[in-house]
Structure formats: C-alpha cells, structure tokens
Amino acid sequence: MSLPNLDTLRDALPGLRLLSDANDLAHYGRDWTRRWTPAPFAIALPASVDEVVGIVRWAREARVALVPSGGRTGLSGGAVAANGELVVSLERMNRVIGFDPVDRLLHVQAGITLQAAQDAARDHGLQYPVDFAARGSCTIGGNINTNAGGIRVLRYGNTREWIAGLTVVTGAGEVLRLNNGLVKNSSGYDLRQLFIGSEGTLGIVVEAMLSLTEPPPPTQVMLLAMPDFDAVLAAFAALRAGLRLEAFEFFTARALAHVVAHGGQRPFAEDYAFYAVVEYAHEGEADETAALALFEQGMTEGWALDGVIAGSEAQAAQLWRLREGITESLASHTPYKNDVSLRISALPAFLHEAEALLAAEYPHFEVVWFGHIGDGNLHINVLKPADLAAADFVRDCERVTRLLADLLAKHGGSISAEHGIGLVKKPYLQGTRSAEEIALMRGIRQVLDPDGLMNPGKLID
Amino acid sequence: MSLPNLDTLRDALPGLRLLSDANDLAHYGRDWTRRWTPAPFAIALPASVDEVVGIVRWAREARVALVPSGGRTGLSGGAVAANGELVVSLERMNRVIGFDPVDRLLHVQAGITLQAAQDAARDHGLQYPVDFAARGSCTIGGNINTNAGGIRVLRYGNTREWIAGLTVVTGAGEVLRLNNGLVKNSSGYDLRQLFIGSEGTLGIVVEAMLSLTEPPPPTQVMLLAMPDFDAVLAAFAALRAGLRLEAFEFFTARALAHVVAHGGQRPFAEDYAFYAVVEYAHEGEADETAALALFEQGMTEGWALDGVIAGSEAQAAQLWRLREGITESLASHTPYKNDVSLRISALPAFLHEAEALLAAEYPHFEVVWFGHIGDGNLHINVLKPADLAAADFVRDCERVTRLLADLLAKHGGSISAEHGIGLVKKPYLQGTRSAEEIALMRGIRQVLDPDGLMNPGKLID
Questions:
Q1: Which of A31, A34, A294, B62 makes the best surface tag, with the fewest CB within 10 Å?
Q2: Pairwise CA distance, residues B165 & B180, whole Å
C-alpha cells in the first residue's frame, strides 16, 4: 500500500471530522486489551451513513485499511489499529432514529451506547434486555460485531436475538438495509446474521433496529456461597428448575477478594470457595417461599454453604457489584483473559480437567474464574505477577491457552463465547472451527470485502 | 452437462438406495405447488452422512445437479426437480440421534418429520415449539431450509431460534458441524445462520440439534368474529396487551366457508367477515376473567361481533380445525398462494391498498385471506375458477403478484414470510432484496457450492 494522503479524504468529504494528533491516535487505536501499540494513520468520525460510504470509497481508492470502532471496550483486540489503518469511529452516530410502539422497535445509529439504548427503551415502557458491565461505554455496533452476551443471556439470549434490522456499509462501499424489522422474512440468505459477530471484517454496521420486550418482572437478588464447581452446577440446576431465573453469575473466592479490595462489601463473615449472584422473578409470596425452600434444600444437600437475600434495592445493587466489579478490580493486574464456552452437560468433565491443567501449568500465577454458568460460559482470568515482564507473561499464557484450546476441542467447546476472536484468539480458532469452516469464512469475507480493507488481520488472515 | 450414468453412482456407493421408475420420479420430483412437471433423473435415498457426502462427490464428478428433498410440502417450488436432477431424499435419515436433558437438546437427522420431533420432545417432558398444519409430513430439514414459521411464532419465534447445531454437507462435499449446541459462540461468521433459510442452495442439511423448551402452559382457545381488518388489528392489540398469547390466527368468511364445506363445524349462526382463533395461557380464574373482560371490551368498542370460548379440548380442536383446515380445503381450487409479511405497523395502510388492488385486478377470482397477523404475515390465496386453464390463471396471478410486490416494496415488506422463494417467488425477489444483496447472495452461493450443483435455478439464478 502506498502512503495515504489525508488531503484526498478531506477533499472527497469536506465536512468529515478527522483527527490525527498523537493523543487521539493512541486513544482511538486501542481497546481494553492494552497489548498492542496503537498506530493508526488517522481517525475519521463520520456523522452520517453517506460519510461512511464516502470513507469506504476513498479507502478503496487509496488502498487504506479501515478499523471500525465503537466503545473499544473489547477484550480480544478486535478494534485495535496498530498498522497505519484509518479508524472509523461511530461515536458521533449515537442517536435514536425512531421508535415504533406497535412493532416495539427502537431504530438507532450504531454508535449509541448500550446504556443509552436501554434507557431509550425504558423511556417507552419497554426493555432492551442485553446487558453487561461495560454498558456505559460499549456501543450497539460493537455489541452486534461480537454478538455480545452478558449477564441476561440465560433469560433473553444474545444480541443476535434482538436485531430485527441492520444497516451496513460493506467493504465494497455498498449500503445494505437488511430485514427492515420484519418478524418473518424467508427471502434468501439472511445477510444480517452474517454481520452479527463478524468483528468488523465484512463492513461497517451503521444502524440497527432493536427489538424491545416487556420490562422484566420484579426480581429478587440472592447471593449463594458454595464449596466447589459441582455445587455451582447443582445449585444452578436446582434454582433453574424452581425459580424463573433472570441471571445466575458465579465467581470464585479470589474474584471476591479483588472486588472487596476495591471497595466491595464482604458478604459473609466466613470465606467460601465459590459464590453466585442469582436474580429471579419475585412477584409474590410464592416466589419467596420457593426461593427459601431451595436454599434450605441446598444447605441440606450440601451445595449451599451460606446465603443472603437482598433486603433492599441498595443491597441488591451491592450484591451485583460483587460480580460486576470483577473486571475492573483485576485491571491493574493486566489479566490474560480466556472466555470459553461449552455445552452445560460438558462442564463437569471440562471443569475438572481445566482446573487440573491450569493448576499444573500456572503454579505461580493467580487464576480467577467467573462467568455465566447457565450459558456454559466461563471467564478464566490469569493475573500477571508484578515482577514478570508483560511479554514473558503473555508468552506463557499463550502456551497454556493452546493446551486449553485442545481441551475445549475435546469437549466440543468454543475458544470465544462472547469476546470474539480479534487478534487475541486468532491463533486458537482452529480448535473451535474446522479448516473447512475457516476456508469458507475467508471466501465469504472476500465476497463482502473484495479489497481486504475491513479490519484486516482480525479474526482470520 | 453430459448424460449421467447411474451405474457410476452405484459403483461408488454400493449400499445406496436408488429409485428411478416413473412413479417414483413423479412422486419425488414435485412439491405441493403442482405447477411443474416432475422430471428428475433418479432418486437417491441415503441412510447416512457418509452416503450424502458420496452422492455430492459423485455429482461433482458427473456434473449432475442435486435437489435436496424433505417432505415436499413446500409451496414455492423449492423442492421441485423438473430438469433431470438427482433428488436426494432425506426420508431414510429420520431418526432421533440423541437427547440431553441438561442442555435440553434433541439431536435429530434432518429427515425426521416435525411431528416426530415434537413427539420426541414431549416424551422427554419438553417442547419443540415450531408448529404448523403440515407437521405430519414436513421435515426438520425442510423447516430449516425455509426458516419455517407457523402458528406459534408470536410466542416462540421462527425455526431459526431453535437450531442450536447443524450438520451440513456443502456443495463441495465437505461436512460442516456447526455450533455444536452451544449457547454462546463468538468465533467468527455463524455459518449455521446462512444455511437456515437457504432452500437447499448451499448444501444439504443432514442433522440438527434442536433446542427444546418448557411445555406450554395450560391454554384456552377462543374464536372471535370481527367486522373488518381494522377490527382484527384492534383485537390483536387488545388481546396481546391483556393475555399471554400463544397464537392469534385470522381468516376471512370465504376461508371459513371452504372449511365448513369440507366438514368443519360452523361456529356461529350468523356469518361475519373476519374470524380469529386465539390461544392464550389459562392458568386460573384471573386469566378467564381477563379474557372475558377483553371480549366485552371488544363488543363495546366494536372490534368483536361475536365469540366463543372452547368448553373442552375437543371443542378447542374443533375451533383450531377452522384455521388449520384452510389449506386442505382450498387445494382442489389450485390456489395461487401469496405469503407476504410486513411490519405490524405497516399492516393497516398495506391492507387497505392491497384489498383495493386485488378487488380491482381479480374481479372474477375468489380471494381468500388468512394468516398470522401478529407476525405481520398474510396468506393471500387466489382460487382458480374451474373453467379457466391453469396456465392462463397462473399468468394472470403473476401479473398481479408483480403489482403486489411493488406495493410490498413501498411498505417495506417481504414477498415471502415463511414459504421461501423457490421457483414461484423468484421473479419478485428484487422487490424485497436489493440488487446488491442479490449479487452478494450469488457470490456466497458460489463459495459454498462452487460447481453450482445445489438446487440450481431455485431462489436466485
């Protein structure tokens, strides 16, 4: 590629906001991985679909690679720009375009934050139910590009379920308006589905029609303490059968210790090995009775060691903070993050083998487990010892991740449940997707992005 | 293409069951459209994934086109073999492979009927909730290839929502085992989604993992009589807000007359213009009170003219028969079927324009409306007058369908909600999908089916 000339872009799109000072390049060139040195060529901040089209057309002409950019809260390097790319930030395209109460559709620009979309839904008496801790910074466009999951998947599914329409600008600079909010549309390949989870490699998601649903029922939040992984699984099975669960999030003693060190409130006088924040529908006496009976059953059967039910909204928020504060409380330890998923039935065997593997391979590293057991999704965070160089730490983690990927392949799991592949997981994709699948992905990418300009190097080569 | 030699296929796959007598060619070469003269070259009935792979490899070598074939209950010509193709019938691959109670997954071969899959789910105390009248003959593979909808979409969504894993043999003869039943899997393009709704043009679906859910709640069935389309929409809005709807299916006086002529039980002494079969959760006194109050409200507001609530399961079945018997009762009239969908918010304007259009363009034809108003899905059946030649009738219907397609495009609708495009709707696809989308579909098809052997001529050219 020849050296790009920003003036030609300025000439083509006189109104386009462009940034190129060093601070901006650093800010927009990285995501939450912090592993790559940001080195974009410039930052474009389009304000309209037409400007995005203009950018892609210019990029084809100038042969400049593009990195679509949302809230850059990603954990897999999917939004990193470290090779002279033009970052296309959607942050100015953050409006609600429209709402229809009959269709229950919220039409948004892709740069809107998840939180703003949730708030807009709530203002209309409805709910956009995808939810996770980064809600205030992550964007709907980014959520779509990773098919984001989060803490309510158990009840509401992943982002994919809630995208009734999608507007994208392909790598060829064409605008596709996909599905238009229809409930039923059997008119050929559903290209919308292809873009969901495509990590910016096929085009730029510029707008979405979000399906909304009824607000959640009144809920209650319980914190459970448990002795081991088998108990976590038993607790989940019992509570799922007896309550209408909205969320079931587990974490280990180590995760709790970090959150408490960062200001979280210690929930019990004693320490336990495992905890779960459980949120369940609570519409009356009967729900409370059922929850208490299940807890008693857990104490009797041994899968519950202690428990507390929130007595107020403030206490519920405090209990949730123990789970939602984990990522932030680990950040200073530069964790290496695994984000694996398995069928729930495969979890018991996998967990035992994975625990043994990690104990053997990481004798000196602290390993923190948490995640969404009801979706088969485990987050395994390995913390960098303060005295170890970052490069050495990552090298060792990559060695072990390869072993973990083999274990996942053996148990039919995935190397990425919800973070995406990006740069971080690319070396391990073969354990999850077959060589034939990867070759087909490459072929499909070529169809949508004939010049290879869309987020090159991410997901697959 | 050179003339294929069946002996080479026999040699390659000695155990493969093959049929080639005239009756079989006629039987397996057509679907419910009955418009094309079946003329397949032969019928293959593989019993395993390996045999399907062998067939595709042979077809590539011999340059023979393949038509994947399920229950052939399709209404768009998607399973028609009229050009010397080899039909690949999945009817021998109709087994339940496995069930996992923890994952709530039913693993089936694609040739299993919808009914058999539903029954297997029920045997395990769970529900496979996709449902429609052809359940006894249509297959899961066919359902997947059209993303089948049916009568419970309102509550449970389309087939797409329930496919947790998919095994396909691509047009290149490669076996893809996609997603393996995982709830969360953000590891690149979700190829599974691409095959759902692909009408056999990318490969052959050979196995599926079906997600199961809780059995439905106890329900009650109500039949409503209404004066006009606006009343149908008002009734739907009121009942959706006040009841937990499992289904809301409307039909017109003409539809009822045909079903009654075929042995259906006339529900009311008087005739009304519109009817709806409504099924709703009925778990106690409160649900009954709510339903009756809504009916009273409808009588007061004018959107309900009469109504009956089933007093027994037998009566509920009788009411359902008024809706489910429509397709069969019209069959002798060789109906031309439209299967359109719109956003619900677009229905009022579309319905008035479409009614006027059809009244003006079909002054001498009987037009029967029914469908799934809550999904924005209308079935418009035009009946052939007995004295009109079939070819002339179809020609006239195609002329009007083009006008209808323009109207759909104006209102953002789709020419096919759930039947698929096949041969019947192919001329009108451009109204629903843009030229860019169709070109991309063509490119993707080329990637999955490089030799153009998979159901050629269907969906797109």
A1: A34
A2: 5
Write down the residue that tokens 């999951």 correspond to.
A149
Interchain contact A349–B (C-beta under 8 A): no
Contact: B448, A460; criterion CB under 8 Å: no
Specify burial of residue A73 (Cβ count, 10 A radius: 0-12, 13-18, 19+). Answer: buried
Amino acid at A183: V
CA dihedral (A439, A444, A450, A456) in degrees, to 10, reads: -60
Any B CB within 8 A of A232 CB:
no
* Residue in A with minimal Cα distance to B145: A186
- CATH annotation of B334-436: 3.30.70.2740
CATH code 3.40.50.2300 for B219-329? no
Cβ-nearest to B187 among A376, A415, A448: A415
CATH topology of domain A99-211: 3.30.465
Which among B156, B166, B186 is the top mutation candidate for probing chain A, defined by the most A β-carbons within 10 Å of its own β-carbon?
B186
The answer to whether domain A99-211 and domain A219-329 are alike in fold is: no
Chain A residues closer than 8 Å to B202 by CB? 189
User: Which residue is it, tokens 């964007």?
Assistant: A139
Do A460 and B188 lie within an 8 Å CB cutoff? yes
For each of chain A's 461 residues, which pLDDT tens digit applies?
456 889 999 999 999 999 999 999 999 999 999 899 999 999 999 999 999 999 999 999 999 999 999 999 999 999 999 999 999 999 999 999 999 999 999 999 999 999 999 999 999 999 999 999 999 999 999 999 999 999 999 999 999 999 999 999 999 999 999 999 999 999 999 999 999 999 999 999 999 999 999 999 999 999 999 999 999 999 999 999 999 999 999 999 999 999 999 999 999 999 999 999 999 999 999 999 999 999 999 999 999 999 999 999 999 999 999 999 999 999 999 999 999 999 999 999 999 999 999 999 999 999 999 999 999 999 999 999 999 999 999 999 999 999 999 999 999 999 999 999 999 999 999 999 999 999 999 999 999 999 999 999 999 99
Task: Tell which CATH classification among 3.30.43.10, 3.40.50.1400, 3.30.1240.10, 3.40.50.360 matches the domain A6-91.
Answer: 3.30.43.10
> How many other CB atoms are found less than 10 A from the CB of residue B78?
30
Residues 182-211 of B with CB under 8 A from A: 182-191, 193-194, 196-199, 202
Instruction: Tell me the domain boundaries of chain A.
Output: 6-91, 99-211, 219-329, 334-436
Enumerate the residues of chain B whose CB falls inside 8 A of the CB of residue A345.
100, 102-103
Six-digit token string for B408: 């759909």
Q: Is B364 on the interface with A (CB under 8 A)?
A: no
Residues comprising chain B, all counted: 461
Given a contact cutoff of 8 angstroms between Cβ atoms, the answer to whether B153 and B375 are in contact is yes
Contacts of A161 (CB under 8 A, 6+ apart): A211, B161
Cβ count near B435 (within 10 Å): 9
- Chain A residue with the nearest C-alpha to that of B238: A102
Of B221, B217, B218, B250, the C-alpha closest to B235 is B250
Between CA A78 and CA A32 the distance in angstroms is 10
Pick from A254, A231, A235: nearest CA to A245:
A235
Q: Which residue of A has its CA nearest to B182?
A: A343
- Select from B178, B169, B241 the least CA-distant residue to B202: B169
Nearest of B86, B65, B210 to residue B139 by alpha carbon: B210
Report the complex ipTM.
0.96
Asked if the C-beta of A417 comes within 8 angstroms of chain B's C-beta atoms, the answer is yes
Alpha carbons A231 and B50: distance in angstroms, whole number: 41
**Does A90 lie at the interface with B, CB-CB under 8 angstroms?**
no
User: How many residue pairs from chains A and B have C-beta atoms closer than 8 A?
Assistant: 222
Separation CA B34–CA B27 (nearest Å): 11
